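@channel sequence for tomorrow's demo:
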Amino acid sequence: MWSHIPAVMRQRKGALDILFQRYGFGRPDLERAVNSATSAVTLIAQDTIRPYENKGSGRKLNEMRLFDLPWPRTVLRGLGDAPVTLRVALSTFIEPNPSEVARGRKNRYGSHGLRFALKGADEDIDQFTRRVGRTATDELVDDNGPGSGEWQFGYNRRSVGSLHIDTLTIPASDLAQRGVMAVYPVGGWWKESRKVDPARCLTRFSLVAEIDAEEQEVDLYAEVQQAIAARNVVQV
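structure tokens (generated this afternoon):
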């Protein structure tokens, strides 16, 4: 893919933008897809969200979804400063605007937009939700607050279309404190048009988070499995 970009331009800031326009997020790696290792674990959350609500004479942002994931905190803390990679993918299905004039106009082509955010290591839940709320309401660029700039692609590059993917590599002890993610709405033509019945403005999404300790000899899967089992215990 890099062969389509002159060598002198590959280190420039806009090089990734050219690749995104031509290839999107690239092609799947089959070897990685079929590989199984205890040093890597993938968490998948599927849910629905009603992005907007009628309020007064207009339509406002309605809700966010908060996920306290079954994070392998103990194992990650034990790795200390060893680098660990987190890959996140958020996918949803948009309804295109049937109006021709909407093409190419921000917030007018897709019915809705969704974004994801990761809790900062030093944020508590209240601080995190307030940050996400401000970001969504004002449609601010958010590279996840306290750790801004640590993502491979960054907010602007990944926040295009209905499939958002990004990666960060940070010390394991840092990632151990960041097991909460949010999915929140931004603008879309459902929000701009009062003609759309709010009862049908319900959309599905999938959030995928993969933790990869790469060459570290650790078992991330076992701790996650135990955490899930504990949450599923039915108390009588």
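heads up for whoever presents: Residues 36-231 form one domain.
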